[in-house]
Write a structure and sequence with these properties.
The complex is a heterodimer of chains A (520) and B (367). Chain A has 520 residues and is an alpha/beta fold. Chain A has helices at 62-69, 92-97, 115-120, 129-147, 162-175, 192-207, 219-225, 248-256, 315-323, 345-350, 360-364, 371-374, 393-406, 423-435, 453-468, 480-486, 508-515, and strands at residues 5-7, 13-15, 24-33, 36-46, 51-56, 77-82, 85-87, 100-103, 180-184, 211-216, 228-233, 236-242, 274-284, 290-300, 303-308, 330-335, 338-339, 353-356, 441-445, 472-476, 489-494, 497-503. Chain B has helices spanning 10-35, 40-52, 55-80, 88-106, 112-141, 145-168, 191-196, 209-226, 228-238, 240-246, 250-277, 288-298, 303-326, 332-348, 354-366. The mean pLDDT of chain B is 92. The chains are: A alpha/beta (520), B mainly alpha (367).
Chain lengths: 520, 367
């Protein structure tokens, strides 16, 4: 049995192996940002050689806590103990020196450097690169062998798939001698296969004695891989459990503070007229590689068509081609019967298209804008938001406040900079903007990527309501569960082609094989 | 995560930090003055007296301020659309041609206030025209606007010298300049405005274009923060990918932003050509276009900030000239060093003090 330190509900420490000092221990950590109490008296101990999960909704204080651990912030009160020794972590250098490595949700890699250049960056150990690169190469081979972290050391980062980029981040941390590895939402951008690979790596790391802290929204991941789990809510650590002794339902309830519906309830679809028709569509990317290969399908009013597939099989390009962001090479797209070739994104919106993009940071939102400014992005030419050349700020803000109330966007302040909202609330800003336009056709990419459980439930319900209001919905998601639970029909994409169509009751196994290009 | 994302109240971001930067710049300038064996406090006194101490000094300071407001706005408008217009210098120079043509054509026949709208339009149209080709190359061909506008500064300079030497020169005269405009082609001085404050600007060329500059500040503010076009420009400037998503037309927005930027730069000529010299001269811009970059940077591309920064540079220009006159060991080049230090601390090192201020602020808020 692995040594385990947990606290029971009365805060008494339970220690299954009292002789072991926790690898990392937080004692009474407290942090305020002005009136916001981000962390309230947090106590946490993680035993060496275990995987500890931290879950909580967006804004629960997980990121603040990890930022304190990694030296981005200083706690107002409390103590960090590493291997039993009180440690002051003033900046990330100090964190690295204390053996803490961090893999951020959005990778911190230089995209046009090679793997080995990224790994040695900052630890070159001298003015000339040659030696350190050679040293890194040897060390890298050892790490790869030991932990199953294979990547080509000479590959350029931007050419690597997301899963491999993440392995580089992990290697970076290990190369710097990390004993404690913090992963923030590590599977947010990964395919199921890549996520499985990551979990295998994490298990090997644990078995070799590394300590891993995993921050995630995904309850299934917590159940699958962690040894112990802590739940945060509104800045407090509300519970710590041994994973084997808890259930998904209990964790979800602890997180949200109420019972959560994990299954989506929806009635029968009622398909009507064809609102989106795609015929023989081919899309090439900037390098001339065919991403969407002669694809044809239809979406009718009153149905949700889901596209399942491993990330990178052309779904993103397909969505972008329909939305008017990417020019198709050939083929035809009809929105509500109208050909849209040559129309830009805003002309297509005029035809009744709404688009929740896959990447809210780069497309759906301008993070430096205030919330109300983002609430009109793409619809700013609407006379509703100001006649003639001028914007009617009063009307826009009133409109934004209405959406904030209806979608429970927190904090309810349209003047707040969008970057200061949590991921789930940012996504709600996009969802509110697009669905409240009352579109004929809604296309949705990764609607709940990096979004907490409560918000997922909310967004799913809104998408189904949109369908029930007689709209056509096209959904792309790499979360197979999401596609299966929301869609009325499922199209499976592999290598740019649609390899088959299934009804929503198709088994995970069947779809998985199709997604891998094995069965049709 | 880092201190960069910690929100600070506006009075700290836009008041305290720039003030601290400025004091730091003056401190290091003082060290430079001290190093060449002069008394920094005395030098500072000459600088202030020479720029703000007398009516004519203030007149000159505000004259420079006016030019810098125009070029500062020019750089700021392009910057909001994500474009770095280094070409304000050349656009102002060519803008002078438009302003001068209006004056030369009309000054015999009509009073100044009839000529003025034509001079404004001429300056703006010629300035905008000089930005059009770089704008088109950026929008359609992806040629970087920084490179092309720099090249157009040189082309513009050569073109203007050619025109002044071969076309506009007054027969029998040596100076490459147009004839002097009659009062009908000039912009009158603002003696009445100075008079309201009990000041006499004497020979200083402070003129009506200052008021035009203030109007343009308001219009630029309106454009950037209150119009749909401004919204599209800011979207494009901050996030090009979000702009594509939102259906902001890239080519159109880039070209319009550059035309407005060039037009504002061109209007700087109203101040120097119609207001001060009453004729078009070689190199009348005298670096105001480049100062506009610093002014925009320091003023955070906001019209209010630009007015303040332009005034600061007006003080440095006018006071600096006076200082080098009063203290011969402080040469004109020395003044440029001081200006450079102000740009360095207030513009380029804008964020240097920020982490420290954030830390102190957080301590303060916590307590």
């Amino acid at each position: 049995m692995r040594p385990l330190h947990i606290r029971n509900s009365k805060g008494r420490r339970l220690s299954l192996d009292p002789s072991t000092v926790p690898a990392i221990e937080l004692v009474g950590i407290d942090k305020k940002f002005g009136p916001v109490h981000a962390n309230k008296n947090i106590n946490l101990g993680v035993a060496k050689g275990t995987i500890h999960g931290i879950i909580g909704e967006n804004g629960a204080g997980k990121s603040t806590l990890m930022s304190i651990l990694y030296g981005f912030y200083q706690a107002d009160q409390g103590e960090i103990r590493i291997g039993g020794r009180p440690t002051v972590i003033r900046d990330s250098q100090a964190a690295i020196a204390a053996g803490i490595g961090m893999v951020h949700q959005h990778f911190m890699l230089v995209e046009n450097f090679t793997v080995i250049e990224n790994i040695t960056l900052g630890v070159e150990g001298g003015p000339l690169l040659g030696q350190s690169v050679d040293r890194a190469r040897v060390e890298l081979q050892r790490l790869e062998k030991e932990y199953g972290l294979e990547v080509d050391p000479d590959a350029v980062i931007e050419e690597l798939p997301v899963g491999a980029q993440q392995r580089v981040e992990i290697l970076k941390a290990l190369y710097r001698g990390a004993e404690i590895l913090i992963l923030d939402e590590p599977t947010g951008a990964l395919t199921p296969a890549e996520a499985d690979h990551l979990f295998n790596v994490l298990r090997i790391l644990r078995d070799q004695g590394k300590t891993i802290i995993l921050i995630t929204h995904k309850l299934r991941e917590i159940m699958a891989i962690t040894d112990t789990v802590s739940v945060m809510r509104r800045g407090e650590m509300v519970a710590t459990r041994a994973t084997a002794e808890t259930t998904v339902e209990e964790l979800a309830e602890l997180m949200v503070g109420r019972r959560v519906l994990l299954r989506v309830e929806k009635g029968e679809a009622n398909p009507g007229a064809v609102l989106l028709s795609v015929t023989n569509l081919t899309v090439k990317d900037s390098r001339g590689v065919t991403m969407v290969d002669n694809v044809s399908f239809e979406v009718k009013a009153g149905e949700i068509v889901g596209i399942a597939g491993v990330a990178g099989n052309g779904q993103s390009e397909l969505l972008e081609a329909i939305a008017g962001i990417r020019k198709p090479t050939s083929g035809e797209i009809l929105i509500d019967g109208q050909p849209v070739a040559g129309l830009d994104a805003s002309r297509r919106r005029d035809l009744g298209l709404a688009h929740i993009p896959e990447d809210r940071h780069h497309m759906g939102l301008v993070l430096k804008f205030e919330e109300y400014e983002n609430s009109i992005l793409g619809y700013h030419r609407d006379p509703k938001y100001g006649r003639g050349a001028l914007l009617d700020l009063d009307a826009i803000r009133a409109d934004a406040e209405e959406k904030i109330a209806k979608y429970d966007i927190r904090p309810p302040n349209p003047r707040l900079k969008t970057a200061n909202f949590s991921g789930g609330n940012q996504q709600k800003i996009v969802v509110a903007r697009e669905i409240e336009r009352d579109p004929k056709l809604l296309i949705v990419g990764q609607p709940t990527r990096g979004v907490d459980v409560g918000a997922i439930e909310f967004i799913h319900r809104r998408i189904i309501e949109t369908r029930d209001a007689g709209k056509a919905v096209l959904l792309v998601s790499v979360e197979l569960d999401e596609v299966r639970s929301l869609s009325d029909r499922i199209l499976v994409m592999f290598a740019g082609r649609i390899v088959g169509e299934k009804t929503s009751d198709a088994g995970e196994q069947t779809l998985g094989l199709m997604m891998a290009g094995i069965a049709a | 995560m880092t201190t960069a994302s910690v929100p600070l109240p506006n009075w700290i971001s836009y008041g305290l930090i720039p003030l601290l930067n400025l004091m730091l710049a003056f401190f290091f300038s003082g060290l430079v003055v001290w190093a060449i064996g002069e008394n920094p406090l005395k030098a500072l006194n000459f600088l202030i007296q020479g720029s703000l101490g007398r009516g004519d000094a203030i007149g000159f300071t505000l004259f420079y301020t006016t030019s810098f407001i125009f070029t500062g706005l020019s750089v700021a408008v392009a910057f909001h659309a994500g474009l770095f217009n280094i070409g304000s210098e050349g656009q102002a120079y060519v803008g002078g041609l438009g302003a001068a043509l209006a004056a030369l054509a009309l000054d015999h026949y009509v009073p100044w206030y009839v000529t003025m709208p034509f001079a404004i339009a001429g300056a703006a149209i010629f300035g905008a025209a000089w930005a059009l080709i770089p704008a088109w190359l950026q929008a359609k061909r992806g040629s970087h606007v920084v490179i092309t506008t720099i090249m157009f500064n040189f082309i513009g300079a050569a073109l203007m010298v050619y025109l002044l030497v071969n076309v506009f020169i007054v027969p029998g005269k040596m100076a490459p300049e147009t004839r002097t405009f009659l009062p009908g082609g000039q912009l009158p001085k603002l003696d009445w405005l100075m008079g309201l404050f009990g000041l006499d600007q004497g020979p200083a060329p402070f003129n009506v274009s200052f008021l035009i500059a203030l109007v343009m500040c308001y219009l630029v503010w309106l454009l950037i923060w209150r119009t749909k076009l401004g919204y599209e420009m800011r979207t494009l400037g901050i996030s090009p990918s979000a702009a594509i998503y939102a259906g902001v037309p890239y080519v159109r927005t880039v070209i319009i932003a550059m035309l407005i930027s060039g037009g504002l730069a061109g209007m700087m000529a109203l101040n120097a050509v119609n207001g001060a010299a009453a004729r078009l001269q070689v190199e009348f811009v005298a670096g105001a276009g480049f100062v506009g970059i610093a002014v925009s940077l320091m003023g955070r591309s906001h019209p209010v900030g630009i007015i303040l920064a332009a005034f600061l540079f007006g003080i440095l220009y006018q006071g600096g000239a006076d200082l080098s006159f009063e203290m011969p060991s402080i040469t004109r080049d020395m003044i440029v060093v001081i200006q450079g230090l102000v740009i360095l601390f207030a513009g380029a090192l804008e964020y240097m003090l920020r982490p420290t201020v954030v830390r102190i602020y957080q301590q303060f808020v916590k307590a």
